[in-house]
Amino acid sequence: MSGSQAQARFITFEGIDGAGKSSQIAAVVALLEGRGLCIEQTREPGGTALGERLRELLLHEPMHLETEAMLMFAARREHLAARILPALAAGRWVVSDRFSDATYAYQVGGRGLDPAKFAALEAWVHPGFQPDLTLVFDLPPEVAAARLAKGGAEPDRFEREQRDFFERVRAAYLERARMAPGRIRIIDAGGTAESIRAEVEAIVEECCLR
Ligand SMILES: Nc1ncnc2c1ncn2[C@@H]1O[C@H](COP(=O)(O)OP(=O)(O)OP(=O)(O)O)[C@@H](O)[C@H]1O
Ligand SMILES: Cc1cn([C@H]2C[C@H](O)[C@@H](COP(=O)(O)O)O2)c(=O)[nH]c1=O
After folding, report:
1. Which end of the chain is more exposed for a tag (fewer CB within 10 A), N or C?
2. For 151-163, how does the pLDDT look when each residue is reduced to its tens digit (9 = 90+)?
């Protein structure tokens, strides 16, 4: 399929902290650009000037669980209005490091937010709109934590959470994938970077480029 013929898609990457998704995003962007497609690479929370300021608060300031959930969706509302929807409308593909599945996994699964409140926020901020493809990088929390520790960066408020928190986040991602099997694909993130890259590229090829 040539670049000019492909309908612009919205692809998201998800998983617990340290699962390895960031390492694979560059490969997917390179794959798509290699097909002549115009790509907008972004992330959540963040992706806009306001969203990046909200990210600083979200990653570093203690706050009530519902404040956290609403700020995630406030940043997302801005992200949709200022970047995601205009890019898709102009024919540019959007590749985002996280979207609303992260709120389901972290705030509902990890922290215990009422799922009805999550559903209300999701229906308000992006009614009827979801990514075309979501790749969830699945890994045991102890393996992900070891990878992050090896990286040596100062952990943020989420990365400092304990293993049981990440077990719940992981379980919520798997539950969410069961609810949307056509959209969400689970990647076993325990392999080598090379084997994961091959699997990711095959899925993107199958779901978005054929
Ligand atoms: N397949 C892999 N095997 C071993 N180490 C890996 C693999 N993939 C990534 N890593 C390493 O694990 C660390 C975390 O990877 P990465 O930053 O891609 O994860 P992430 O899921 O984006 O995490 P975060 O959500 O916290 O940003 C990095 O040091 C990276 O080099
Ligand atoms: C979008 C979103 C993110 N989070 C958490 C998940 C991560 O711990 C951080 C973002 O850091 P990353 O290195 O860019 O992955 O934010 C969340 O709890 N809820 C969300 O909706």
Report:
1. C
2. 999 999 999 999 9
Number of domains in the chain: 1
**CB of residue 69 inside a 6 A radius of ligand 2:** no
Beta bridge partners of 186: 136
Ligand 1 pocket: which of 147, 188, 200 to mutate (most atoms within 8 A of CB):
147
**Å from CA of 130 to ligand 2 middle:** 18
DSSP, res 63 = -
Secondary structure letter of residue 162 according to DSSP:
-
Q: What number is the ipTM of this complex?
A: 0.98
Distance 24 CA to ligand 1 centre (A): 9
CATH of the domain at 132: 3.40.50.300
Cα separation, 166 vs 208, in Å, equals: 30
- Residues 6 or more apart whose CB falls under 8 angstroms from that of 84 comprise 10, 40, 42, 47, 94, 96
On whether residue 38 sits in a domain, the answer given is yes
Could you list the residue range(s) of the whole structural domain that residue 188 is in? 10-209
Q: Judge whether 1 lies within some domain.
A: no
Q: Does ligand 2 come within 6 angstroms of the Cβ of 177?
A: no
Which residues does the chain have with pLDDT short of 70? 1-5
